[in-house]
Design goal:
mainly alpha; three-stranded antiparallel sheet; SNARE binding
Length: 409
């Protein structure tokens, strides 16, 4: 530098010449950088001009794609709206056709029947649906318990046919007159199966029976069935005491009834020389006969509720009567729980009297009719000890009545 002051380091002073030199250098640098900038700008402009057409084309393609997506969404929405309207139109057409059919059917009906409301028609349809469902359940129930008739012979060449034996779960249920031909264990097992079958059948059909079954004195998880009258105003309703639906060979081991009241039973008469234990055992067996008569009466009432009338002469064949119920054309149409409602047991249309069933089930109906409800088996047996004699047959002991009428079997 020409200026000595500019060479001093303590303070930075510039002279006019130094400032001019600095300004010249700055202008030269600025001019050089401006030239570089302009050159870069021109290059960028030329590059942009070369890709301008492709960039615009891509922008147009992107805009077209966006418009196409919007059109596709709008088309899908229109299709959904059309489908919904088509379904609604189909529903309206079906409803209109149904109304036309209903109106046509109403016009064909007598004038007094045209007052049926829509609710009553829907209830009728629902009742038919429930009846079909009940019929299906009953058919499955028959298959599960395997209720079939075995043996028998059809009528051929003028010869009368022979009826077979009805079984449930592979066990034969004899008529009351043949009960003594089978061991007690067999009778207990087949009656228990029949009680379960009847209970499920009445549950599916919604039927309340006159006599109710209860279970007591469980042994090894298995209860003993007892039966007695439920609530009612008919003659059978006074038989409120519980009767066993099981047999026992040891009177001391017989479980007590759920009801402490004395049971109406059929009398038993023994020789004067018989022991009191034998009198008690026979009295308990006769009480079983009364319980069996109650079970048969339940089956007859169930058949009546499903449009099957069982005569007194056939009341003892319980499984055959239950089979007739399961095959009835009126099965499941009437019930105590759904419309059309049945009257409580037993209505006046059911003319079968329990006393008649009891007389037919007993060995001597005339004598059984003299038993008062509430009288125990021991009292009935001891009071009639001299009214019959005992004859020993090949297959065991049997009670032979003097001057009595025939029952079932």
């Amino acid at each position: 530098m020409e200026c000595k002051n500019c060479e001093l380091r303590q303070r930075q002073y510039y002279c006019a010449n130094c400032l001019r030199n600095h300004l010249r250098d700055f202008r030269l640098q600025t001019h050089h950088f401006s030239s570089d900038r302009n050159e870069h700008i021109s290059r960028a402009s030329r590059a942009f001009k070369s890709i301008e057409s492709g960039r615009l084309l891509r922008a147009e393609i992107a805009r077209a794609d966006h418009s196409l997506d919007q059109l596709a969404d709008s088309l899908a929405q229109v299709r959904r709206d059309c489908e919904n309207k088509r379904d609604r139109l189909r529903t309206l057409r079906e409803t209109l056709a149904q109304r036309k059919r209903t109106l046509h059917a109403a016009r064909l009906l007598p004038p007094q029947s045209q007052t049926l409301t829509k609710e009553s028609q829907e209830l009728s349809v629902l009742s038919q649906t429930i009846a079909r469902a009940r019929s299906g359940l009953v058919q499955e129930l028959v298959e599960v318990f395997h209720v079939v008739e075995v043996g028998g012979r059809p009528a051929v060449g003028g010869r009368a046919g022979a009826r077979g034996e009805w079984t449930v779960g592979g066990l034969v249920l004899p008529v009351p007159g043949d009960v003594r031909r089978y061991p007690p264990d067999h009778i207990n097992a087949v009656i228990t199966q029949t009680i379960h079958f009847l209970g499920l059948l009445t549950f599916y059909l919604g039927i309340k029976l006159p006599f109710e079954v209860s279970w007591s004195c469980r042994r090894f998880g298995v209860g003993m069935p007892w039966i007695g009258a439920g609530r009612g105003t008919e003659s059978w309703a006074k038989w409120t005491a519980k009767h066993p639906l099981h047999l026992t060979s040891n009177p001391s081991s017989t479980p007590s009834s759920p009801s402490s009241s004395p049971s109406p039973t059929l009398p038993v008469s023994l020789a004067d020389s018989e022991a009191p234990e034998q009198v008690l055992a026979h009295g308990q067996n006769q009480s079983f006969t009364t319980g069996l008569a109650m079970l048969l009466y339940n089956v007859c009432y169930l058949a009546h509720s499903q449009g099957v009338e069982i005569p007194l002469s056939q009341a003892g064949d319980a499984l055959s009567n239950l089979w007739a119920v399961c095959c009835s054309g009126e099965l499941g149409r009437r019930s105590h729980s759904t419309t059309p409602l049945l009257l409580p047991p037993t209505p006046p249309s059911f003319t079968l009297d329990f006393a008649q069933v009891l007389q037919a089930t007993a060995a001597s109906p005339a004598r059984a009719a003299r038993i008062r409800p509430g009288r125990s088996a021991q009292e009935a047996g001891i009071s009639n000890m001299r009214s019959e004699r005992i004859v020993e047959e090949e297959d065991g002991w049997d009670v032979v009545e003097l001057g009595g009428e025939e029952g079932f079997g």
